[in-house]
Write a structure and sequence with these properties.
single chain, mainly alpha, 0% strand, elongated
Length: 97
């Protein structure tokens, strides 16, 4: 979990540097424009891609986790469940049913 958190923080700092803004100012502008914080937005994008892959591929959950940026499949499954109230496998079974 610390790795994901550090990576997400680094992403915010890198984006701020690209925009020529301080990290805090960039975070404020980003939230104002998107309605989400940087980490929440990144999670939203990752989960949308994960749902798409669960719906359209037969790839194992561990492969999908890696594909959307979660090196730990168990952490991915916990995050997915916290967002969707279903595990990735439950989501896949429900969407196929």
């Amino acid at each position: 979990m610390a790795q994901a958190s550090n990576g997400e923080r680094s992403t915010g700092h890198a984006l701020a540097a690209l925009a020529g803004l301080s990290a805090s100012h960039f975070a404020d502008v980003f939230r104002r424009e998107t309605g989400l914080g940087i980490i929440s937005y990144q999670t939203h994008l990752r989960m949308a891609r994960a749902r798409e892959m669960l719906d359209t591929t037969g790839d194992p959950v561990a492969v999908i986790a890696q594909s959307v940026g979660y090196p730990d499949a168990f952490y991915f499954a916990r995050r997915f469940r916290s967002v969707h109230q279903l595990t990735p496998s439950e989501y896949r079974a429900q969407s196929k049913g």
